[in-house]
Automatic annotation (TrEMBL):
Keyword Plastid found: no
Lineage of producing organism: Bacteria, Pseudomonadati, Pseudomonadota, Alphaproteobacteria, Hyphomicrobiales
Name of the protein in question: Bifunctional diguanylate cyclase/phosphodiesterase
Signal peptide (from-to): none
Naturally occurring in which organism (per UniProt): Methylobacterium komagatae
Keywords recorded for this protein, A-Z: Membrane, Transmembrane, Transmembrane helix
Protein origin, superkingdom: Bacteria
Domain EAL: 1-253
Residues of the full protein shown: 397 to 649 of 649
Amino acid sequence: RDAERDLPEALADGVIEVWFQPILHVPTGRLAGLEALIRWKHPRHGWVPPPDIIAAAAVIGLSEAVLRYILDHVYRMKLLLRERGLDEVRIAMNVCPRELTQTAFEKLILEKLDAFGIPADGLEIELTEDTALDSAIASERLAVLSRAGVSIAIDDFGVGYSSLSRIRQLRVNRVKIDRSLVTGLHEAGDKRGLVQAVIDLGKALSLEVVAEGVETETDLIALREMGCPFAQGYHLGRPTQAATVLDAFAPPF
Ligand code: G
Ligand code: G
Ligand code: MN
Ligand code: NA
């Protein structure tokens, strides 16, 4: 496939970008975090879906190179946030099961945290699927990161396989409620019950809860009433380039 053939050059030329989407603290509306999302606009085929980029990298043996690339962008953004007094804004990056088992990703992450002088709790790992977390090697690697202080989040929570015992075993700090349960929340009674249950679960287990897929003000108001601590979605900010996010949330003074 073209994506595979053109990936090395796209990495070398910096054509691949890392964009960021804001995560807001619901009670105050303040910026609490950013989710890093890889973006590649191929000159002929247009936007390449992120999972295809990750899969292409694995096929041609560039998984580690892509991970390093994303980490460099994430850590550079952390430094920019620090310059603007936003040290407490945590950056989350997505990690899929294959990355967990096939690359020495915990070493890479910790090495680079050190090199950039960034505290481990400034970074979060979003586990995009939990299927491979059965593997001992994946949980051991996550445990290494967790012990170092890196935050662990379960993505797409509520539609996957994550059990409560798994959450404890993996030392999860945060759950992100899947957007299919959140979008249109105000008009659907059943969704509201599920979302409220996760919010309450978070309080009971000291887990941070993020509602994803907040697309309207009415959904945001409903979440605020329900006591949801964090939210993310197009209504609060779309994924954009680093400079755009900084202009919106951390303007120079
Ligand atoms: O950003 P977008 O909506 O196109 O993302 C589609 C999917 O790709 C999401 O599930 C997201 O978690 C995943 N994704 C985005 N960026 C990355 C990345 O850098 N690494 C991994 N493993 N997945 C990513
Ligand atoms: O699977 P994951 O949650 O990592 O997917 C993240 C992707 O979801 C982001 O890259 C973004 O493109 C998409 N996304 C973020 N907010 C919204 C939203 O409010 N609505 C929709 N439809 N997609 C969103
Ligand atoms: Mn995610
Ligand atoms: Na998600």
